[in-house]
Amino acid sequence: MRLSNILTLGIKEFRSLGRDPVMLGLIIYAFSLAIYAASTAMPETLNKSTIAIVDEDRSPLSLRIQEAFYPPYFIPPAIIERSEMDDRMDAGLDTFAIDIPPDFQRDVLAGRRPMIQLNVDATRMSQAFTGGGYIQSIIDQEVAAFVRRYRAEPTQPVELTLRARFNPELNKSWFGSIMEVISNITMLSIVLTGAALIREREHGTVEHLLVMPVTPFEIMLSKVWSMGLVVLAASTFALTVVVQQILDVPIAGSVGLFLVGTALQLFAMTSMGIFLGTVARSMPQFGLLVILVLLPLEMLSGGQTPRESMPEFVQFIMLGAPNTHFVMLAQAVLFRGAGLDVVWPQLVALAGIGSILFAFAQIRFRNTIGSMA
Fold first, then answer.
1. What is the pLDDT of residue 153?
2. Three-state SS for 214?
3. Residue 17 — pLDDT band, cuts 50, 70, 90?
4. Taking the mean position of all CA atoms in its chain, how far away is CA 298?
5. Which residue intervals define the domain ABC transmembrane type-2 in the entry (predicted)?
6. pLDDT digits (tens, 9 = 90+) for 151-195
7. Are 264 and 354 in contact (CB under 8 A)?
8. In sequence order, which residues have a C-beta less than 8 Å from that of residue 249 and are 6 or more positions away?
9. How far apart are CA 362 and CA 111, in angstroms?
């Protein structure tokens, strides 16, 4: 192995990538606009939802409930007649429609339990799922505050004090932006290395490499370090500029320690990208293979849902995936401020899994090169 060959071949990969505007555009988008969109448009977040209110009581209490719905969760409610409610929901104008019955305030003050009807457009799944709970909480708070003006406040036997650690504002954009960075690191590391190999095969430059005094190991290692360096630089930019400065997401731990884990993750995933590039015979085949690999990695690694909520055999199998350990490391460092004494098992696991993937990819790459020779 000659380091000069590895360095020269890596520079060649940079030049080849520079002449590919589609890949350059994908890198720029994945580590800028994609992260911003994922953090500001979280699907489970209730944001400026449309709501209409049918006020058949027209009392101070019903007016108080109307004024309780305001941005950012809801837009100011439309006050409509009962005959309009169904037509507006059929037309998709309202996600929620509240019907306050007659004599609602009188029944509340009399100690009765009047019912308010809430109609929900369930075709808007993300808002419908969380919006009902928001509306229930808002109405309960307003009714309780109104009743306290007329009756003594009951004494609660237990008081619950909530302290939210690591995300005191319960801001979902904090989680969304970091997880999008992690997902894009995985995706780009596979795509860039695999596409680089297939591009050389399609352009016929692999045959040129075969007549040069370079080994398959040098060719493969050059692709790993060059494409890994591109993704590492892009992820550093995304974390420091997009996440910390533009989105104003605080980072609790060491960015340097996270980048060390990112480098090990890139070592594993670029090796997987080369392996997939040797299996696929064309770019369309490679794209299908990437989809089959990325979806399980992202959905079952703990980035979307906690691993503890998954079946035990899935948790055990996913311990062999580098993404599982990378997500654990990233969340511990960036969210909880963990140090090396906490995340060293994940670093060791990433290094071990990466070495195994690199060995398998090298064997496959050497056989592929040998068959072409």
1. 56
2. coil
3. confident
4. 9
5. 132-368
6. 555 555 666 777 777 777 667 777 888 888 999 999 999 999 988
7. yes
8. 39, 173, 174, 177, 178, 243
9. 76
Digit-coded pLDDT (tens) for 192-231: 998 888 887 777 676 677 677 778 888 888 889 999 999 9
Which pLDDT score, from 0 to 100, does residue 311 have? 87
Model-level pTM greater than 0.85? Answer: no
Beta bridge mates, 52:
78, 97
**45 phi and psi, to 5 degrees?**
-90, 130
Determine the pLDDT at residue 44: 54
Residues 6+ apart with CB under 8 A from 285: none
Which residue is associated with the tokens 């060293």?
344
Residues whose CB falls within 8 Å of the CB of residue 170, separated by 6 or more in sequence, listed in order: 164
Nearest of 372, 184, 353 to residue 271 by alpha carbon: 353
Domain assignments of the chain as residue spans, ordered by start:
3-42+168-371, 51-150
Q: Are 88 and 80 in contact (CB under 8 A)?
A: yes
Measured between alpha carbons, how far is 274 from 223 in angstroms, rounded to an integer?
Answer: 8
CATH superfamily of 51-150: abc type-2 transporter like domain (3.40.1710.10)
Cβ atoms of 63 and 70 closer than 8 Å: no
Distance of CA 269 to the CA centre of its chain: 18
> Longest C-alpha distance within the chain, in Å?
93
143: Cβ–Cβ under 8 A, 6 or more apart, which residues?
61, 65, 108
- Contact status, residue 372 vs residue 206, Cβ threshold 8 Å: yes
Give the number of other Cβ atoms within 10 Å of residue 232's Cβ.
18
DSSP state of 309: G
Per-residue model confidence (pLDDT) at position 200: 79
Say if residues 148 and 231 touch (Cβ distance below 8 Å): no
